[in-house]
From TrEMBL:
The lineage of its organism: Bacteria, Bacillati, Actinomycetota, Actinomycetes, Streptosporangiales. It comes from the Bacteria. SUPFAM superfamilies: Homeodomain-like (SSF46689), Tetracyclin repressor-like, C-terminal domain (SSF48498). The keyword DNA-binding applies. It holds the Pfam family TetR_C_1. Residues 36-55 bind DNA. Keywords: DNA-binding, Transcription, Transcription regulation. Residues 13-73 form the HTH tetR-type domain. The keyword Transcription regulation applies. This is TetR/AcrR family transcriptional regulator C-terminal domain-containing protein.
Length: 190
């Protein structure tokens, strides 16, 4: 008689990264309003209180972490300030589009932590590449990208409860973004 012994997998340890990934999944799939600590605990197969070990301020810390996740964008400096700015704007747009469920947080949470560091790095990169008034340029770029993604998500139907599907990629939105990006860069150069 052969007895097969199936090895039981040990549970995946709870970590800040796992918590953020699960929260992003809930927010993107069901909306930010449906993201509760209890629902998050259920998704992670832990008691909700276990999350507080990794995020001591609870839901407030979770919201900060989600905003930071989609706004702490860093890129390597390019050959010109314009190319560095293009890379940053495109990377920021993709991060925001990847997680439409937390766009509202990205738009409303003040930059802190890794996001504040990334913004300072952007200013330094643009200054080092020869752009005067780089801090103003970074504020302009952030306003352009965040606003552009907000309009794109709105038009995609993502938040419309009456729609079963939403458009993740829209060639027209891509063309509009690139046209606006080039116009903004020309304006910053003058």
């Amino acid at each position: 008689m052969v007895i097969s012994m199936l090895a039981k997998r040990p549970p995946v340890p709870l970590s800040r990264e796992r918590i953020i990934d699960a929260a992003l999944h809930i927010a993107d799939g069901q909306g930010l309003r449906r993201l509760t600590m209890r629902r998050l605990g259920d998704a992670l197969q832990v008691e909700a209180m276990a999350i507080y070990h990794h995020l001591p301020r609870g839901k407030e810390a979770l919201m900060d972490a989600l905003a930071e996740h989609v706004t702490a964008i860093q890129v390597d400096p390019a050959t010109s300030w314009q190319e560095t700015a293009r890379q940053w704007c495109r990377a920021q747009r993709e991060a925001l589009r990847e997680h439409p469920g937390v766009l509202a947080l990205a738009l409303t949470k003040p930059p802190k932590g890794a996001t504040a560091i990334a913004i300072m790095e952007q200013v330094e990169q643009l200054t080092d590449a020869g752009l005067t008034e780089a801090a103003e340029a970074v504020r302009t770029m952030r306003a352009f990208v965040f606003g552009s993604v907000a309009v794109e998500v709105q038009q995609s139907g993502w938040a419309d409860p009456e729609r079963d599907t939403w458009t993740r990629r829209d060639e027209r939105a891509d063309a509009d973004f690139e046209r606006g990006l080039e116009a903004m860069l020309r304006g910053l150069a003058s």
